[in-house]
Design brief:
By secondary structure, the protein is α+β, with helices and mostly antiparallel strands. It is built from 5 helices and 4 strands. It has helices at about 5-10, 15-20, 25-35, 65-70, 80-85, and strands at about 50-55, 75, 95-100, 105. Strand 3 and strand 4 (about 105) form a beta hairpin. It is globular and about 40 Å long.
């Protein structure tokens, strides 16, 4: 989830909410997006607004800065690529997608 900032807070699991609200995460997220020129690292054609953790955050690793704050574990994604990451195995009919809150909507 990735997630991050305001988007991450909406979708964050309870164990991660404090992390996503922390100044350390907000600073890391903002500087990482700038370092990638605000472009989605997968499709390279849309604005990247979500900072995704490649190794998903869990209750076991939420306090490990090598997982939570390491740029090696981060990826800037657009909403569509983030949806694909988290919902690619879901059965979604053509013309539908998940919005930033996880609701099923038309593309």
């Amino acid at each position: 989830m990735a997630g991050a900032g305001p988007r991450g807070e909406r979708m964050a699991k309870d164990f991660a909410k404090n992390f996503y609200r922390s100044s350390a995460w907000k600073k890391c997220r903002a500087s990482f997006i700038i370092s990638k020129h605000g472009l989605c690292e997968r499709c390279n054609c849309k604005a990247g607004t979500i900072v995704h953790h490649k190794i998903y955050l869990t209750p076991e690793n939420i306090n490990d800065p090598n997982i939570t704050l390491s740029w090696k574990n981060l990826e800037v994604l657009c909403q569509d690529c983030h949806n694909e990451e988290h919902h690619s195995t879901d059965a979604v009919a053509d013309g539908l997608m998940f919005d930033e809150d996880g609701n099923l909507i038309q593309k």
